[in-house]
Every structure is written in structure tokens, then in C-alpha cells.
Amino acid sequence: AVREAVEIYRGLVEKNPGAFTPDLAMSLNNLSNRLSDVGDRGGALEAIREAVGIRRGLAEGNPGAFTPDLASSLNNLAIRLSDVGDRGGALEAIREAVGIRRGLAEGNPGAFTPDLASSLNNLAIRLSDVGDRGGALEAIREAVGIRRGLAEGNPGAFTPDLASSLNNLAIRLSDVGDRGGALEAIREAVGIYRGLAEGNPAAFTPDLASSLNNLSNRLSDVGDREGALEAIREAVGIYRGLAE
User: Fold this and answer.
1) What is the mean pLDDT of residues 95-106?
2) Which of 38, 56, 70, 180 is the most buried (most CB within 10 A)?
3) Contact in structure between 32 and 81 (CB atoms under 8 Å)
4) In 10 A of CB 230, how many CB atoms?
5) Residue 67 CA to chain centroid, in angstroms?
6) Do residues 240 and 209 touch, judged by C-beta distance below 8 A?
């Protein structure tokens, strides 16, 4: 479906670039995600690179309208570059995205602070990939702080994002040897996901299982072997049900 959309927009752009170029970039961004879903990492990277190129040109001509879209595609580009093993390129892309979104959030916090937190979460992963554990921890701590504030103001919209960043924080704290802090973070994430899964099992049970897997590792790190076994047994039970 998205391949057909891209081809239609490509034809429209040839006739009227001013009207349809933004739509082409949007569909290319979507195409990249779908190609990634089916394992075509090279194709996904090619599509998002084209989207970034288009949106960069649009943002130069009209920053107010198109800079947020550029940041969104740069965030996606970082993930696609990481998927093909280009860790340096991925870090460069996400750093640019964070820089753009930080500026946008300063000008309009209500609209762009959630996006900044998302890119900081991505930045933490990319920094970890290149061995910068301290930088990764700093980035994820900022993301958690932002998402905690957002979740307090609007729990329904932002609590899942907070849990996701807490899960990431636990890994980053473990990476720098803070086992107690890592255990505290993942326990909070598991608690949040457990509540979310009770309210919406289909949406959040996989996330609960993933966090229980992380919890098991963190409990093992502090020598709680029985607790670690209990957590991973629960995770296996959930995954078995999902796999069936």
C-alpha cells in the first residue's frame, strides 16, 4: 500500500512540487518503517535517506513549517543506520534530531517536549552503542525526567513512555555499575507495565514480559537468584501465551 502511495506522490511531485513534495516525504518515511518491518534494512535506509533529504530542503525554505518533520525523519534515520551497523552515522543523525527538538521545545514546550524525550531515549541507545556509557546515562536520565513530568500531567497519554524510558534507564545504570539504581528503575517500570497490562492486556502484556526479563537480569546482578528466577518464569509464561 505504501509503495503505491509513494509512486502516486512521486508522479504528483513531478507536476506540482510545491504542493506534493511534503506528502512524498511523509510516505517515504512510512515506507522506511514498513520495509524495516519485513526485514529489508537496506531498502528502509534508502527510503528514509530520501525523506531526510527532501525534508532538509523544505526546512531550509520554510523552517517553521518543516523543521519538526525533519527532526522526525532524522530520528528514524538514526534507527535505520543502527540497523545496518553504522553506529557513528546513527549517533550523528540522532544528535541532530535532539538539537532540533530541544530548540523546538524551548519555543513551544507543550507541542514538542514529548518529541524531545523520544529523541533523548533514542540518543541514549545510540551513545551506548558506541561505548559512551556516561553520555547514554545522562541522556536517558533527562528523558525519564521529562516523561515523568508529562505522565504526572497526563497519565493516560504518557505513562507508557515513562515505563519505556525507565526500562532503558535500568540498562544504562547497570552498564555503569549502579546495580541498586538499575533494580529500582526496572521495578518501577514493571509496576507501571503491570498496571497498564491489567487495563489493556493486548497492548501492554508484551511490554510487561520484556520488563520482567530485564528485572530478572537486574535481580541476578544483586544476588537475588530466587527473585530473578521468579521474574523470568513469569516472563516465559507470558511469552508462551503470546506465542501460542
Assistant:
1) 98
2) 70
3) no
4) 15
5) 19
6) no
Length of the chain: 244
Residue 86 is classified by DSSP as -
Q: What is the CB neighbour count within 10 angstroms for residue 142?
A: 19
User: What is the band of 79 on the pLDDT scale with cuts at 50, 70, 90?
Assistant: very high
Q: Can you list the pairs that 106-114 forms with residues at least 24 positions away whose Cβ atoms lie under 8 Å? A: 112/68, 113/146, 113/150, 114/146, 114/147, 114/150, 114/158, 114/161
Q: What is the pLDDT of residues 198-230, one digit of tens each?
A: 999 999 999 999 999 999 999 999 999 999 999
Q: Report residue 71 as a C-alpha cell.
A: 527532526
Residue with cell 538514526: 78
In the chain, the amino acid numbered 208 is L
State how far the Cα of 44 lies from the Cα of 72, in Å rounded to an integer: 15
Helix, strand, coil shares of the chain, percent, nearest 5, are 90, 0, 10
The owner of cell 553520555 is 135
